[in-house]
Write a structure and sequence with these properties.
alpha+beta, 24 strands
């Protein structure tokens, strides 16, 4: 007899004639199931009762639990092993837990294409397409990073394409787990117009002026740090080199003692010395002001300089982290002007709080895309969520 009937929000237990609702986290893990058994609109948890009374021989206490309406609480380690506690139950008919997958009597989770063993942190069988991803173990789960990735069905991850505003453009079916982002509408059109038989037909590894890899959390953190270090040092420029080694990202940073330039090559050399291939670099432009000998005012900006544009391009456009000083010169104070005029030819720092942070991607010809840095970071988060949802909604093997 059919007992458990899954629903979009939990399940119906036909034997107990009750609906149960699941509370899940952002990774799809079922943290608890609950039901309003008495129909009073309130879901109660277990209640511990301490019943104590005095006797001639002293106080005697009887402790007992009044069972609540929650089926149990389950907490997980990153790779799916459950915490050792008394709150989760293994005798319930409904055993959907880590990533929302069903826990078998064998201790494995059923992902559709393969079974996953959480206590060994590996699949029960090798990846049938292991030759397509030789840099990873054929048993690996979520590229050994379950905090960043989830695996909806045990199959290979695909390359997904998004617009910078978070709109999904398509997939090329290449099994590398990458998310690529189009920086402008021209690149979006190039991607969508290439779709044939439901797949993007562009070479995901080829350089394009308007295409970048989705920045990792570590890279965003390094960008934030570059801004912070520059402001703390009186607008001395900072640089970040980004590299790749067998699918692993490498980052190296370098700071300058001056306000007009930074030696990005030092960071690049650090990575190449460790076996990384450079994918792109990022450097800062400060909120600064100087006067030349002719009395002309020059301010720091967010666009690449001639020297920047003449530098090497790698596998995607480079970027400048700057401020919108040039479009907000009215915010430069008279004290800052006086300071700059007293040191002709030298940059003096401006108050960065008066200006917006701006990120600009560029190539050898100039700027490719410019936008507010805060908006850029927010959009990156939107794309991350969208990519995770696309993975979850992909059809499972029957």
């Amino acid at each position: 007899k059919l007992r458990i009937i899954p629903t979009s929000e939990g399940y119906f237990d036909a034997l107990r004639n009750r609906y149960f609702y699941n509370y899940t986290d952002h990774l799809g893990n079922v943290r608890l199931s609950y039901s309003d058994a008495d129909g009073n609109g309130i879901v109660t948890g277990d209640i511990l009762v301490n019943n104590c009374y005095d006797t001639p021989d002293g106080q005697i206490c009887n402790n007992y639990i009044i069972t609540g309406e929650a089926e149990g609480v389950t907490n997980y380690y990153p790779f799916g092993l459950m915490h050792n506690n008394e709150n989760h139950s293994f005798d319930q008919a409904y055993q959907y837990k880590y990533n929302g997958k069903e826990l078998q009597e064998t201790g494995m989770y059923d992902y559709g294409a393969r079974f996953y063993v959480p206590d060994l942190v590996r699949w029960g069988v090798v990846d049938p397409l292991a030759e397509k991803m030789t840099r990873y173990s054929p048993y690996n789960y979520a590229f050994n990073n379950p905090v960043r990735f989830i695996d909806p069905d045990g199959r290979a991850p695909l390359t997904d394409y998004f617009g910078l505003s978070g709109n999904y453009l398509g997939t090329d079916g290449v099994n590398n787990g990458k998310v690529r982002v189009a920086l402008n509408s021209t690149e979006e059109s190039r991607i969508t117009s290439s779709i044939k038989d439901g797949k993007v037909t562009l070479n995901s590894k080829a350089y394009s002026d308007g295409l970048i890899d989705l920045p990792s959390d570590n890279l965003i953190s390094s960008m934030d740090t570059a801004y912070s270090n520059m402001e703390a040092s009186g607008m001395n420029e900072q640089a970040i080199a980004v590299g790749d080694k067998n699918g692993l990202e490498g980052l190296a940073t370098v700071g300058s003692t001056g306000k007009g330039s930074v030696k990005t090559g030092l960071a690049e050399n650090e990575l190449t010395g460790k076996g990384y291939s450079i994918t792109h670099n990022i450097h800062t432009h400060g909120a600064v002001l100087k006067f030349d000998t002719s009395g002309n005012a020059i301010v720091g900006g967010f666009n690449p300089s001639g020297t920047d544009k003449s530098g090497a391009l790698f596998t995607q456009p480079n970027a400048v982290l700057g401020y919108d000083v040039a479009t907000n010169t009215s915010k430069i104070t008279s004290a800052e002007v006086t300071s700059a005029q007293s040191t002709i030819g030298n940059f003096v720092p401006l108050n960065p709080a008066n200006y917006n942070k701006i990120i600009t991607y560029y190539n050898n010809s100039g700027s490719v895309h410019t936008m507010n840095y805060g908006t850029f970071k927010n959009n990156v988060e939107i794309i991350k969520v969208g990519a995770a949802m696309i993975n979850l909604l992909r059809p499972r093997p029957q």
